[in-house]
């Protein structure tokens, strides 16, 4: 950042205005410019498919999963166009910023001697979490793995970004079983757990899936069938509604002052009518039958996961068994851990994102979970080639996904296979131009693969320079780059057979979708939007917010 003496009057006014807007309480850090963000002032990120890495091992009606190779700041920018408010679960395992130099900033490894290491880490995370928030669906959640080194900072940062009221909770995971055989083991407490912070996007009540632990037993029977006995419980009275409907007398028994029955009067009368309520030793007893409750015993979503679910060491062995020992990872999240998180937080058709994908564990977890319950969840994993020696996306994450979809040794040492459809993309860039219209002409064709990801349409029906048609199980997507012969291409689309609206993207210099240029009645219905205007609008918001200092 430049000295104040070099600021213009307008820049100083903006700076003073931003300072006045800053919170008086919260996490404060010195924002450190990050090259991947400032680069976007002069070039715009897009993605390009690496066709030869496509995996087509599942049926056409199965979802297509996505791998994106590149810096996750750029990948998240692209996903803000392709998947706004569509991601149901995000799991990330970011660098912990420890003395092991696991964290890189501006292509340099950060160690404990760097006076700004916490500020750089917070700057790094804040940019990505802001982008991630825009991706979460209405009832979406994000899980973030972290250790004690940055836990406190991350908690406050997430309170600011997602809102303190949207903290779902913190999960402690027993990640280690072996002690450190170094002199530091005598100086400090031995860490045995890592943390997984969970936040909801907010705006709706989140309901988690729960595990079952056997069936409830109904040891008694009468003329109406089997039942079990349950003492009607008393609980604290909560508000006016509780006092009106749940504080009443049952055969001479009334809850103490400030207490209420756990069930309301209408429900109690139902038990009484069918003869399933009686008094024993001054207590109200109910006959509970299978029709009254779930027959399964449910386990809550505990804030603690034991080593039985897997450890960092078992995760490393799991990866070694799949791709060999030369992967360079000392600790790896076990598949069962991420699988458990995804089970609790997802539906069978959810989209699950990991933008610190590392070795690709999240991808495997999603495929295993789909096999377990017949789901059609889709994973999107993003990783680059910088955090470890070698090429993490090309030589670790992709080979892992390729192996599990073609045949591998699972954690039990058995031959296994998880068929899936996967497409592999790399981030690329379109240089900005002084003339907005020239930029539009350059950016539009580069958006082709972003449109395909947005629509989930990967099978090519027409592949011409200025006219593309793709299909999926839901219908057709067409892209017209020619700004002169729109009518000709629409006439060709009219000749196709389809029972669903055609999703149409048309090059335009403005926000006009250009369908008003057509003549004659159309046989098909078209859902049309201009390109690249949609991408430019998203990027204007993202990269405007990424400039300057603290927000």
Topology summary:
Elements: H1 9-21, H2 35-38, E1 43-49, E2 55-56, E3 64-69, H3 72-82, E4 87-92, E5 103-105, E6 108-110, H4 117-133, E7 136-146, H5 148-162, E8 167-174, E9 193-200, E10 211-215, E11 220-222, E12 225-231, E13 234-236, H6 239-246, E14 259-261, H7 265-273, E15 277-280, E16 283-288, E17 296-299, E18 304-305, H8 312-323, H9 335-345, E19 351-354, H10 361-373, E20 378-383, H11 392-406, E21 408-409, E22 415-416, E23 421-431, H12 436-446, H13 448-455, E24 459-463, E25 467-472, E26 475-480, H14 486-494, E27 502-507, E28 526-531, H15 533-545
Parallel strand pairs: 3-20, 3-23, 4-7, 4-19, 8-18, 19-20, 26-27, 27-28
Antiparallel strand pairs: 1-23, 2-23, 5-6, 7-9, 8-9, 10-17, 11-12, 12-16, 13-14, 15-16, 21-22, 24-25, 25-26
Describe the structure.
The chain is of the alpha/beta class and 551 residues long. Helix content is 31%, strand content 26%. The strands form seven sheets. Strands 1, 2, 3, 4, 7, 8, 9, 18, 19, 20 and 23 form an eleven-stranded mixed β-sheet that branches. A hairpin with a 2-residue loop joins strand 11 and strand 12. The protein is globular and about 85 Å long.
Radius of gyration based on Cα positions:
28 Å
The number of strands is 28
The fraction of residues assigned to DSSP E strands is 25-35%
Largest sheet: 11 strands, mixed
Output the number of helix runs: 15
| Secondary-structure content class | alpha/beta
Low-pLDDT runs of 5+ residues are 547-551
Q: Give the overall silhouette.
A: globular
The N- and C-terminal alpha carbons lie at a distance of 15 Å
Query: Share of helix among residues?
Result: 25-40%
Mean pLDDT equals 88
